[in-house]
Amino acid sequence: MKHRVIVVMPAYNAAKTLERTYNDLSKEIVDKVILVDDVSQDETVEVARQLGLDVVIHIQNRGYGGNQKTCYLKALEDGADIVVMLHPDYQYDSTLVPELIRPILDGKCDMMLGSRFLSGGTLAGGMPVYKYVSNRFLTIVENAVLGQHLSECHTGFRAYSRHFLETIPFLLNSDDFVFDTEVIAQAVAFGFRIGEIGVPTRYFKEASSVNFANSVVYGLSTLSVMGRYLLAKWNLRPYAQFKRTLPEIISRYHLPQIVRPTPQHAPDPAPANGHANQSNPS
Predict the structure, then answer these.
(1) What is the pTM of this model?
(2) What is the pLDDT of residues 176-218, one digit of tens each?
(3) Best label site of 99, 109, 250, 256, fewest CB within 10 Å?
(4) Helix (H), strand (E), coil (C) string for 189-243
(5) How many domains, the chain?
(6) What pairing do the DSSP bridges indicate for beta strands 157-161 and 82-86?
(7) In sequence order, which residues have a C-beta less than 8 Å from that of residue 182 and are 6 or more positions away?
(8) How far apart are CA 159 and CA 179, in angstroms?
(9) Helices 63-77 and 179-189 sit at what angle, rounded to 10 degrees?
C-alpha cells in the first residue's frame, strides 16, 4: 500500500529560494506540497502558486511555531500518512526526502531528523561559529536530559509519521522557534522512536537565519523546555504538553477531520449542558 507523503513548508520571505527547494523534491515520492505563508513581504505566495503548491496564507504573522501548527493540521486534514517539514530557504537538500522517510516507511522510526553534523563539514558549509557552538552545547544538554544520542536537535528538515502527529499535543507548543525543541521533548515523553540521517550544511545570503540576539533567546527557551520536561517526568508539575494527547486537547467537532477514528480516539459524549470542559491544561 502506498503511503501518502505530504511536504509542508513554513514560509516567510522565501521567494528567492522556494523554486529551487521545490524542484529538488522527488515528485514520485511526494504526493502534495503545502506552503503556509506567514505574512511574507516578498513574492513567496505568487511563486508558490505558480509552482502549483497548495498555499495557506496567515492573516497575521503567527511565528515559526505557529506556522508549523497550521502546516500539520492542514497535512493531517489532507490525509497525510507521513509529513515532511522542510524549510523553503534551500538550506536543506530536498533530494534526500526519500532517504529521510524510509525508516518511517519501514516501521523503524516515528520521527526523523536531517542532521548537519552527521555528514561533517558543518563549518565549511557556512554555519556561523556562534551557531555551531550553541548548537553543540544545546544538543549535549538535550541528549543528557532526554536520554538520547542525537547528533543535532536543531534542524529544519524533519519527517513524522501520522500517528506521531496525531498523538503529541503540538498545539500546546510555543509559536516561536523553540517549537522544534518541544516536539523532540514530546517525542521522548510519549515514547516515540527518533532517527537521523546526515544532510549537507548550506548557508548563503538568501537563506533565512536567526540573528545572534534571537539565538540567545532561543537557547534560553530550549533550556526552559528541558526544565519543564524534567518537572513533568518527575511528576512535580503536570505540564499538559508532556502529559495529554492531541485528541484530548482539541474540539470534538474538529477531531474527525484531524485524527483518524480509532477506539482510543473516539470523541467523548457532549456534557449535559452542551459545554466542553474548560479546565486549565497545565
Answers:
(1) 0.89
(2) 999 999 999 999 999 999 999 999 988 876 665 667 788 899 9
(3) 256
(4) HCCCCEEEEECCCCCCCCCCCCCHHHHHHHHHHHHHHHHHHHHHHCCCCCCHHHC
(5) 1
(6) antiparallel
(7) 65, 170, 173, 174, 225, 241
(8) 15
(9) 50
